Amino acid sequence: MISPQSGNTAKWLTLLTDPNPQVTAHVNVMRSGMVLADYPIETAKVTLDRTAAVRRTCTLTVAPQVGSGTTLDMSWMDLFAAAGNEVRPWFQVTFSDGTTDEVCLGTFTIVTTKWTFSGTDVTATVSGSDRSYILSEAEALVPQTLSGVTVDQAIEQFISSHNFGVPINYNIVPTSDTVPATGAIVKPGKTAWSQVTDLAASAGYEVFFDNLGTLVGRPIPNPSASAQVLSVDTVSRSGLVTVTSTSTRKKIYSVFGVVGAGTIEVTSPKTGNLIHKKVAIYGEAADENPGSPTYANGPFGTIGKLTRSGIVSTQTMANSMSAGLLAQQVGAMTALDVEILPMPLLDCWDVVGVSVPMLGVAGAYVVDGWDLTVHFTGTQTLTVRQVFS
Predict the structure, then answer these.
(1) How large is the C-alpha radius of gyration of the chain?
(2) Most buried residue among 87, 99, 203, 298 by CB atoms closer than 10 A?
(3) pTM of the model
(4) pLDDT grade for 179, boundaries at 50, 70 and 90
């Protein structure tokens, strides 16, 4: 779960049984990591989607003339212009005991702003995306070669060698997987974000910007080893509003294969010298759980998905990448949309318990994302998939 300002996540869970929470929101406007101004939010929708190219997006409506002003000599129209500034919305709540707390909903590059004059005042509607949007818009203009370093080092070196307009901090778990000595070549026209995600995937990692704008890289979590952070059911209700269950096999696979290229040392038959010879490397991961609906040896079938990587150079990397691809999809055939009272601390890979006997739903589900409407009557819809141990 995302940590609130107080660090007291247990207190936030009481919101699921609070019929009348006092909810407000405000937004920081930032440049180069520095807060320039703060404004109350009139309405907001924030989306978290682990499967999307850009994990976090938002749409905010503010009345800038009501805000605290700015530390710089610029108008509020300049503040919200899509010229490099960022917005950081905060979800605030007043608990039944009168105490308050807040949690950051994300750090978003301003992509589009529309100003509306209604006859008496002006409002700004801001659409934003997390920092991966900047990298996804930036295409390589000349070739660049990354070689001889570990994957986590390569990601940091690659990003640090460019100016993306915002300060980026890193929280990447070190790995021994190394970019091949022959180099991973960034070709002209390839976006910076696709290069970063390719590097991460080659080590079986996911990479994303968290709510505070830090670049996180880590092995794919194992939800079957995670404790449930909360549970909702139709008996106690516990903040539950509606549940929709969907079963689909569209773009669902039971086996993931990865093809890479490594090198071996061989003796030249002509010169007797050691030379490096390129060899193909193949890694595979299959759903081998008989209790899973996508069990490869069951009625679902052996439905394969092949990925080719110019970065994977060892058997370990091929195995890690294929296992990571499988782990991100297991359980996706049995997905739920769970509408609950707002719980903005939930993050991707959190595990929740859901029980709806009338739908045959009972068990642990892992969060893949959510849509949150910031309003005193707003709700939050979780997208979750079943956990199979």
Answers:
(1) 24
(2) 203
(3) 0.89
(4) confident
